[in-house]
Amino acid sequence: MNLMRITALLLAFAACTPTVQVAMPTEPITINLNVRIEHEIRVQVEEELDALFSEDSGLF
Q: Which of left, alpha, beta for 8 (phi over 0: left; psi -120 to 50: alpha)?
């Protein structure tokens, strides 16, 4: 009787094995990059700070 239970359990576990399938996508992969370049603004602020902290400004 135990042998029949073990066999039934093994068959049940064997029937539930998952399958993995790898497939190519139907449409191409797109990468959307929303990039803002604020280089000009940073340069202007850095130049203003350089002028503010220069030796002849009298701040320090």
A: alpha
User: What is the per-residue pLDDT across 10-35, written as a single tens digit (0 to 9) for each?
Assistant: 877 776 667 788 888 889 888 888 88
* Lookup: tokens for 2: 């135990």
Q: Contact at 8 Å (CB) between 13 and 6?
A: no
- Structure pTM? 0.27
Asked if 53 contacts 60 with a C-beta cutoff of 8 angstroms, the reply is yes
What does the alpha-carbon distance between residue 20 and residue 54 come to, in Å, rounded to a whole number? 66
Q: For the purposes of burial, counting CB atoms within 10 Å of the CB of 27, is it exposed (0-12), middle (13-18) or buried (19 or more)?
A: exposed
